[in-house]
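Action item from last meeting closed. Structure (343 res):
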């Protein structure tokens, strides 16, 4: 099966009332882990690459690994998505390379740190939508700004300074025509999201529910959605790591989101933790080993377990063969029809 459209995956998820995990990758082992988890759980899947991942891997390598994944797992609807595109040019180059979906994160300026104005965000996102839809490519936009700065994305702070304003969200969708909308509800990227189990004072699920009420047909996206499980932290610390106590987003809060319009859930950190723990364990227990396969295999297996669990928890498990994927060529016609109807 060729790489498919994210719009279709999310439309189907909305019909079925489930969410779809979007997992970040930088290399072959991570792609293999996700594809094995998708096969085991019979899940449609979104694989995403950040700008950092594109530069780390030389994105053409990543693209061809994705084509291999699509060929080797033909029963799995598979989307290749750009995570946090910071400019029109970044999104354009991803579309030209063959990504079937892009995120234009215009909530921040091109530096990925400074919050932009609403009008700047609308202008750059709309420009990307116009280009992407001509190519049959899906667009995710973002309104409101994530907290933290740990991995280079985010405006810093607790994440509560720029929680999404519901009225702006409505106007943003109307003005840009995005297919999916990332909102800020107090989460941030990385391991250090919350200093204790989050409650409504720091994780604004009520805000998400309010936005869904105003935009019931828009696919919402939750970023910074790793749960940072204690058991994964423990393995790292048991084998010489130095993670400080921390909390992520509880899975039950994500499931509440899914019941209220969340269709895409971004997870990277949990997989990073699983990989690192597995590698540390081999290094600590078998210091004589030096073949990278001896630690990359357990690392891949550890990531697969986390991804398969999330696929089940998000509800996408079992849905891989519900529908016949629409080709990107057909999506071009779909979007052309949509814009003709709007005129
Ligand atoms: O957007 C956040 C993801 O965790 C990707 O992080 O930019 O370090 O690849 P990265
Ligand atoms: P985590 O750091 O919580 O995994 O979030 C990843 C993310 O939002 C990628 O865009
Ligand atoms: Zn993100």
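Sequence:
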């Amino acid at each position: 099966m060729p790489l498919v459209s994210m719009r279709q995956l999310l439309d189907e998820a909305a019909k079925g009332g489930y969410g779809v995990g979007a997992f970040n990758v930088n290399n072959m082992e991570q792609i293999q882990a996700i594809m094995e988890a998708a096969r085991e759980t019979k899940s449609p899947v979104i694989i995403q690459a950040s700008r950092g991942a594109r530069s780390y891997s030389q994105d053409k390598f990543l693209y061809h690994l994705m084509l291999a994944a699509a060929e080797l797992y033909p029963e799995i609807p598979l989307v290749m998505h750009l995570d946090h595109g910071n400019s029109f040019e970044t999104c354009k180059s991803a579309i030209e390379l063959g990504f079937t979906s892009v995120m234009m994160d215009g909530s921040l300026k091109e530096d990925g740190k400074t919050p932009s104005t609403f009008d700047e965000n609308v202008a750059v996102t709309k420009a990307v939508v116009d280009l992407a839809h001509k190519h049959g490519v899906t667009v995710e936009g973002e309104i409101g700004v994530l907290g933290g700065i740990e991995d280079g994305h985010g405006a810093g702070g607790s994440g509560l300074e720029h929680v999404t304003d519901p009225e702006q969200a409505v106007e943003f969708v109307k003005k840009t025509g995005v297919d999916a909308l990332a909102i800020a509800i107090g989460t941030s990227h990385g391991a250090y999201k919350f200093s204790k189990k989050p409650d409504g004072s720091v994780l604004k699920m009520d805000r998400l529910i309010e936005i869904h009420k105003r935009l019931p047909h828009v696919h919402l996206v939750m970023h910074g959605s790793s749960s940072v499980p204690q058991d994964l932290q423990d393995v790292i610390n048991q084998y010489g790591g130095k993670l400080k106590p921390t909390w992520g987003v509880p899975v039950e809060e994500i499931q509440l989101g899914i019941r209220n319009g969340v269709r895409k859930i971004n997870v990277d950190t949990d997989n990073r933790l699983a990989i690192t723990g597995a590698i540390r364990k081999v290094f600590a227990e078998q210091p004589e080993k030096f073949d990278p396969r001896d630690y990359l295999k357990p690392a891949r297996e550890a990531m697969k377990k986390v991804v398969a669990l999330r696929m089940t928890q998000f509800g996408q498990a079992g849905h891989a063969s519900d529908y016949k994927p629409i080709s990107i060529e057909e999506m071009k016609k779909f979007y052309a029809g949509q814009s003709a109807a709007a005129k």
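Note appended to the action item: The first helix runs from residue 6 to 16.
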